[in-house]
Specification:
Number of strands: 11
CATH superfamily: Nucleoside Triphosphate Pyrophosphohydrolase
Distance between the termini: 17 Å
CATH architecture: Alpha-Beta Complex
Structural class: alpha/beta
Number of domains: 1
Largest sheet: 6 strands, mixed
Strand content: 35-45%
CATH class: Alpha Beta
Helix content: 10-25%
Shape: globular
Radius of gyration: 15 Å
Number of helices: 3
Order of helices and strands: EEEEEHEEEEHEHE
């Protein structure tokens, strides 16, 4: 049978959103918090990473954010369930002042009601798998240097 391969990388864009005092990060997860990941999604043809981040967060959570500088380029080359995938993600520093006092924002699409945005400290993020892998270290450094994370993994 062998593993199937997608014929090209998937281009994505995601946001690192700190609260005002930088003590918490706005993170996407399922209701049971089995994992944490940065909010965002796929970049559509003709769209910049900034435009994709803004569109995804408006579409999924009615959340209008400010997208800032590029923080990280993540390349994930993964194999799971017999499928090989290659995601290339442009991750930006962002801000969402209008939600700093909210604790949970529920995904607005009915089939994704178990997906939420919530504030987590860096310590809390270290208690669950956080994706993309390696991003927690980068977020903790909170550096102005653009990082390049490469993950090659089989599940």
């Amino acid at each position: 049978m062998g593993s199937e391969k997608l014929n090209r990388p998937l281009l994505r864009a995601e946001a690192i959103i700190f609260n005002e005092d930088k003590s918490q990060v706005l993170i996407q997860c399922d209701i049971d918090e089995n994992f944490y990941r940065l909010p965002g999604g796929s970049i559509e043809f003709g769209e910049t990473a900034t435009e994709a981040i803004k569109r995804e967060l408006i579409e999924e959570f009615d959340l209008d954010i400010y997208v800032g500088e590029l923080a990280c380029v993540n390349e994930s080359l993964l194999e799971y369930d017999g499928m090989e995938v290659h995601h290339c993600t442009l991750i930006h520093w962002c801000a969402a002042p209008s939600v700093e006092h909210m604790t949970v924002i529920t995904h607005k699409e009915e089939h994704n009601q178990n997906i939420i945005l919530t504030w987590k400290t860096l310590e809390e993020l270290s208690t669950r798998p956080t994706y993309p892998e390696g991003i927690l270290h980068m977020i903790s450094a909170n550096s102005n240097i653009i990082e390049h994370l490469v993950i090659r993994k089989k599940y």
